[in-house]
Design a protein that fits this description.
GO terms for molecular function: RNA binding. Keywords: Coiled coil, Nucleus. InterPro entries: ARM-type_fold, CWC22_splicing_factor, MIF4G-like_typ-3. May interact with EIF4A1, EIF4A2 and EIF4A3. Interacts with PPP1CA and PPP1CC. By secondary structure, this protein is an all-alpha fold. It has two domains: 4-265, Serine Threonine Protein Phosphatase 5, Tetratricopeptide repeat (Alpha Horseshoe); 303-340, no CATH class. The protein is 67% helix and 0% strand. It has 16 helices and no strands. The N and C termini lie far apart (48 Å).
């Protein structure tokens, strides 16, 4: 039983909250609608201010909803527009906190999985895949997730999936080759094997042949063989990203190294990739195979410093890391940045 006066208070609170959220949505929507490359710095600055003034949860949900509505349509979205939207997410991810990128990524991946299962007719899958590809291009997510998605698509291997594999490889193929050439090679071998076994089933043989040619071009690092491949726009926006990200080491430290399986089962096993995300469900399943060793690395620290750390009895990784940071920092700001990481 809830007494009337308390009930009244709750109702007014809900109305107030709803009104606040409506106002927030309008503001974010206005900023996203004006988003373009020249005004990216001012818009990302205003978004950061909104993050400081409102609760992170509300901001993350509002931003994700608006971006999903803008980018996930039944017709193919212009690549440029996609890149600018994702670049905004990546700047907020680096400047505000990794939960921004993590929230958006989870929503995109879940939607992609759902649409792939339901065989959506429109271009929604391609649009979602483009979002994931650019999240990887702008260092929000690690190549591990991209390889997971590619493996999943190769294992299904219908005409729709071949289309999506081609689309993804065209967007991030050469970056994947730089990041993990061995995994790409294994993927190509697996795709060739699948193509040989599925030769009878698929009517459109030219598509499969084209996919295999693209993969071979990737393996041989031959950009000319891929029609319509143009790394210029992504490179240009990456440069812009470097100027807009405050932290010195933009990129590798804040990349979310999370697998497809973890993202899809986040509600069951918690979000270990977000620092401080509370988890009240069943204890996390201890799977020895998928244990990734989390190592604290202090970049390349000279053996002299390590020897000093040993002499000062810094006997755990964390202690050694903190000691090395304090000893090798240029000034207090540098030390602060490194300690946060």
């Amino acid at each position: 039983y809830v007494p009337p006066q308390v009930r009244k208070a709750q109702e007014t609170l809900d109305d107030k909250k709803r009104e606040e959220l409506g106002r927030l949505k309008k503001m974010v929507n206005g900023l996203i609608n004006r988003l373009s490359e020249p005004n990216l710095s001012s818009i990302s600055g205003q978004m950061e201010e909104l993050y400081m003034a409102n609760s992170r949860k509300d901001m993350n949900e509002t931003l994700t909803d608006i971006l999903m509505n803008a980018c996930v349509t039944a017709v193919a979205m212009p690549a440029r527009l996609m890149m600018e939207h994702v670049l905004l997410v990546s700047i907020l991810h680096h400047n505000v906190g990794i939960e921004v990128g993590a929230h958006f990524l989870e929503a995109v991946v879940k939607k992609f999985d759902e649409l792939c299962r339901n065989d959506a007719e429109g271009k929604e899958c391609e649009n979602l895949l483009a979002l994931i590809a650019h999240l990887y291009n702008f260092h929000v997510v690690h190549s591990l997730l991209i390889f997971d998605i590619l493996k999943k698509l190769v294992s299904t291997f219908t005409e729709k999936e071949i289309e999506l594999i081609l689309f993804l490889l065209k967007n991030v193929g050469f970056s994947l080759r730089k990041d993990d050439a061995l995994a790409l090679k294994e993927l190509i071998t697996e795709a060739q094997r699948k193509a040989n076994t599925a030769e009878k089933k698929l009517q459109d043989q030219t598509r499969v042949r084209f996919m295999l040619e693209t993969m071979l071009a990737l393996r041989n690092n031959d950009m000319r063989k891929i029609p319509g491949y143009d790394p210029e726009p992504v490179e240009k926006l990456r440069k812009l990203q470097r100027t807009l990200v405050h932290s010195s080491g933009s990129g590798k430290e804040t990349q979310l190294r999370v697998s497809l399986e973890s993202l899809l089962s986040a509600d069951q096993v918690g979000r270990w990739w977000i620092v401080g995300s509370s988890w009240s469900g069943a204890p996390m399943i201890d799977d020895t195979n998928s244990k990734t060793q989390q190592k604290l690395h202090v970049g390349k620290v000279s053996s002299k410093i390590m020897e000093l750390a040993r002499k000062q009895r810094m006997n755990t990784d964390i202690r050694r890391s903190i000691f090395c940071v304090l000893m090798t920092s240029e000034d207090f700001l540098d030390a602060f940045e490194k300690l946060l990481k």
